[in-house]
Every structure is written in C-alpha cells, then in structure tokens.
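Supplementary Note 3. Input sequence used for the single-chain structure prediction.
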Amino acid sequence: MHYHPYKSQVSQELSEPDKVNRLQPCNEFLGLVKNNSDIANTLLISDEAHSHVSGYVNKHNCCYWAHNNPHELHERPLHSAKGTVWCAAYSHGIIGPYFFENEEGRTVTVRHKVMLETFLRSELHPRQQDLLWFQQDGAAAHTAEISMQVLRTMFPDRLVTRFRDIIWPACWRNLVVTDYFLWGYVRSKVYETCPANIAELKQRILDFIQGIPKSVLQRVMTAFPSRLQECIERHGGHYQVSHSNNND
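The predicted structure, written as discrete structure tokens, is reproduced below.
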C-alpha cells in the first residue's frame, strides 16, 4: 500500500551551550559511580507532573497510516480538572505519590517546602536518609531558599540540583527517570479508560504506582549511568530514541 506510520518524537531544542552544560554533570556523576558502584542504588530522582481527568493522547501509540500527515486534532477541555502529583524514584521503590492539595482535596500550587517537611522526611528512615543522594530539577519552587534549607539538612553534600553539589542543568528531561520512564508508564496504564472524576484519577495513580515491581525500578536505575555515558558520547546531544519497552 506504500503507507508509512507517522509518529512524533518531541524534544527540546539544544543549543551548543546546553550541550556543554549537560556534559559536566554527566562526567561528575559517572565519577561518583567509578568510586562507588552502588551510587545508582542510593539516588532519589524526583519530579512532579500534572494529570488531567480528561486524559491525554499517547503519541507513541496513536498512529495514523497515510501518504501524508493527516494533521489530526485532539480536542480537550480548556479548564480540565487535574491533580499535581510528586514522586521520587530509586532502585528500592517509589516514594509517593504525593498530591499537592488543600484540606478540601482541591489541587493547589506546588508547595515544595511543605511536601519535604510533612511527607518526604516522614517517609525516609534517618539511617536510610544518611546514605541517599537527592536529585531535583531547577524549578523555582524547588530551588527557593526555604526549600533548599530543608534539603541541605536532609541531604548534606548529597544534592543534585541547581547551584549545589552536582549541578543539574536545564534541558535534562530525556535523562531523568521520572520523565523517560515513570510518568509515561503511569499514564499509559491509568488512562486505559477515562477516569470519571479527580478522586478516581488520584486513586488509580496511587494504586498503580504502589504496584510497580521493585525489579522494574532496579533495571531502570541500573541503566541510568549508561544513559549519562551515551549523552557524553553524543557530546551533550540527545540520545538515540529506543523502541524497546522498559515497562516489561
């Protein structure tokens, strides 16, 4: 039929300074791995994401067969009910999910300091906390001084973030476990059928995340240093998109 499948792969454009900035933390972290091969098992990689009741389109699985791109549109509500969820992934499990909401259960702006003090601190055993490295991106809520004060007490000299022990630069989304693995994995299962409301959406997210096998997380975290190495080999550029399924 001479038809071809069209799939979009969206990546942030990288400038030459972006590529240079990506190389430094790759080299620094791999230096830690060289001195401590178990470092990948003691790294907490964290982030938050928005999840809408209206669902989303999985561009990888949504494929149109045609001679030309059909420019198919997907309509969704302008103000869809949503939840903002935070997680931290490491080889021993997932800490979370934590939903940013008020006493009435309504989604609120990210309050990072509150989450750190009331949730993350209580989830970590003190002896466990003394061994862990903590990673986050450079979002303003993450790197505000009130949040950084809490993190410096919890993870002294073991912070991977903007302006800290290992600098976490912009444009690293395709190297972060929560982005290249967790959120896509969660959404592909949670939205198999559309949730009826925000309460059902949050319960699905909670149930699925708590059910992710530890063996899957161990494989993902073990592969993390190899992704950094590939970034170096590509001189800070995007890595080759893999079509293998990390969710098996």
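The chain has one domain: 15-50+80-233. The chain is about 40% helix and 15% strand.
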